Amino acid sequence: MFDKNVALLSEPASGDAEKHVQILMVEDDYQDVQLLKALLSQQEYCLDAMTHAQSISEALDCLRSSGDSIELVILDLSLPDAQGLDAYHKICSSCSEVPIIIHSGNIDESIAIEAVQRGAQDYLVKGKFDGHLLGRTIRYALERHQQYLELQSEKLKLQAITAALQHSNQQLEVTNQALEQLATIDELTQIYNRRRFDEVLWAEWRRLAREDSPLSLIMCDVDHFKAYNDTYGHPAGDACLQQVAAAIANIVQRPADLVARYGGEEFAFILPNTDLKGATHIAKDIQAAVQRLNLPHLASSTGDQVTLSLGVASMIPHQDVSPVQLVEAADRALYTAKRLGRNQTQVSLPDLESAITEVRQASHKAKEFCQTLKHARSSLARSLEPAKQQRVPQLRW
Ligand code: GH3
Ligand code: MG
């Protein structure tokens, strides 16, 4: 169909071979049919390629039985079974892919405009055109229609490409999420890793500083784990860490709570909006969960099963203070638990913490004061230098 039309896109030189465009003429007036045929033959259209229907229903039958072979419809708007644009609508709705030229005795311009707006290729008024104009109208109709079909096909390709792109974007998003997830999960224990711990700690610290609400931290460490590895082997040590992680992972339930493998055989809990009392309570639950595992540890000097030591700290975050202070406080409490015999929870006392902070601040201020004193002394020495030199007796020879 397209190839045949391409030949029609340029003005035909005189003496061109007959043009085989499969045209369906829908016309009930015998004289008009003869006139159109005569005009078309002047333009060297092959009359054998014409089909004629006298009504809309005949035309629809013809379109149905012809498969896709009809390339153009020339349609009268005054037919026995349809009048005006209704005739156009009936043909158009059953073969939207075929260009339609209207051939009508109605000179009402508004109908012509509406027909073209609805997709008709052209509107020829009966008796107001010659063979040359008819030939050109057919050529342009086929050309425009071909361009329309090409555009449609490009549009479909574009839609397919867009859909494929959207699909791969979605896949990329899923992959990115999976990667992001992988980057925050500890491979051995399948709980959050240190990276995630740090992210959440800083984010919660900033959030709770605005809310003026407490943030608690529990640091847990498996007791005598080196001895466990030495006794049972490294793979058994790995399995032990997995069991401990699984046992403690579900103890905290609030959406903002987080449990992570802090490193080695150390685990950490971030508990937003939780005070020291609440965090201590959770620490006891953690300790009890590991006890319930009842994992034998014959090399432990603390007992005959795997145990944890825990350090708890709580602070109301402040934007001028780093959350590292909270980690250090929990670590100090954990160290105390280790020192006092392991398998226990120790709490970082706020009074003690503020005393430590005060001592640190005082020591910092003292250092600054010493520094200022030193500067003052050296500038005093510099300012006294000329006076000293004046007092040196001049030797005369
Ligand atoms: P303490 O009671 O004072 O905590 O003593 P500890 O032996 O538990 O502590 P130490 O720091 O001396 O030893 C920790 C051991 O944990 C040493 C290290 O090889 C082991 N460890 C750290 N990460 C892993 C791991 O992923 N798998 C295994 N199997 N062992 C680990
Ligand atoms: Mg340990």
UniProtKB/TrEMBL annotation:
Any idea what this protein is called?
Answer: Phytochrome-like protein cph2
One term of GO molecular function: diguanylate cyclase activity
SMART domains for this protein? GGDEF (SM00267), REC (SM00448)
Residues bearing the modification 4-aspartylphosphate: 76
| PROSITE patterns to which the protein is assigned, alphabetical | GGDEF, RESPONSE_REGULATORY
Report the CDD domains cross-referenced here.
GGDEF
Task: Please list the GO biological process terms of this entry.
Answer: cell adhesion involved in single-species biofilm formation; negative regulation of bacterial-type flagellum-dependent cell motility; phosphorelay signal transduction system
Query: InterPro entries from the xrefs?
Result: CheY-like_superfamily, Diguanylate_Cyclase, GGDEF_dom, Nucleotide_cyclase, Rev_trsase/Diguanyl_cyclase, Sig_transdc_resp-reg_receiver
Keyword Phosphoprotein in record = yes
Q: What is the lineage of its organism?
A: Bacteria, Bacillati, Cyanobacteriota, Cyanophyceae, Acaryochloridales
Keywords carried by this UniProt record: Phosphoprotein
What organism is the protein native to? Acaryochloris thomasi RCC1774
**What's a GO cellular component annotated to this UniProt protein?**
plasma membrane
Origin: domain of life = Bacteria
